[in-house]
Amino acid sequence: MWRDALLVCGKDLRIEARSRIGLNQIAPFAAAVLLLFGLALGPDRQALEPAAAGLFWIAVLLSVVLAVQRSFALESSDSARDGLRLSGLDPAGIFLGKGAAIVAQLLVLEALLTAGVALLFGARLSGGLVLLAACVTASIGLAAVGVVYGVVSSGLRVRETLLPLLLLPVTAPVLLGATKAWNAALAGTPAHAGIWLSLLAIFAILYVAVGIVAFGPLLEDS
């Protein structure tokens, strides 16, 4: 399973490195979302700084939809998805590999958006360990549930509109936990983030476990 996961993750990351879709499209989209939210709230730094964590994670969440769609679009042509089914790879390994590739892309995106939050909203990036832990655990949870719903919608004609409808409600606990953890860190009280980091870890483990069990049957039916 782990060998297959490394193969799939490496394949997806190599394709992304060559195509630069994430760098040229997803990252500018996330930055534009962050900027537009800032413009909507106005130039008042006193209003922007408390909202920085929420705006950050909304931008990340919207970017997850694009990243998941891109991940499954890689196998949408030339019967590549059928080849994936017939390759003999462990379905759990495919799930973990795709999830790991999305997590890697999200962490790079979050690093860029963190700099944007500091520059645009004047957020003080205190509690660095809490910020990093929230990013890692939330990215794992978002990627896991994204891959599960991505394979559900990948074989449908309405996959572009169906995926957000399936994905966004389920990720609400992750969005809440990550936002609260970031709020605690940015406010200079990282000790208050412990319960929210625990919530993120629980949902990350839950989503990964469900994905490992369910991805194989979902892949066969897609």
How would you concisely characterize the structure shown here?
This protein is mainly alpha-helical. The protein is 84% helix and 0% strand.
Features:
222 residues, mainly alpha, 0% strand, globular
Describe the overall structure.
With 222 residues, this protein is mostly helical. The chain is 84% helix and 0% strand. The chain has one domain (2-221). It has nine helices and no strands. Helix 1 (2-19) packs across helix 5, helix 5 (91-121) crosses helix 6 (128-153) and helix 6 packs antiparallel against helix 8. The protein starts with a helix and ends with a helix.
Distance between the termini: 21 Å
Mean pLDDT: 85
Structural class by helix and strand composition: mainly alpha
User: What's the alpha carbon Rg, rounded to whole Å?
Assistant: 18 Å
Element order: H for helix, E for strand: HHHHHHHHH
How many H/I helices? 9
Total beta strand runs: 0
Please outline the major beta sheet.
none
Helix content percent band: over 70%
- This entry's quaternary arrangement is single chain
Name the beta content range. under 5%
In terms of per-residue confidence, which ranges show pLDDT below 50 for 5 or more consecutive residues?
Answer: none
Shape: globular
Walk me through the topology.
Layout: H1 2-19, H2 21-41, H3 45-73, H4 80-86, H5 91-121, H6 128-153, H7 159-170, H8 172-186, H9 194-221
Helix pairs in contact: 1-5, 2-3, 2-5, 3-5, 3-6, 3-8, 5-6, 5-9, 6-7, 6-8, 6-9, 8-9
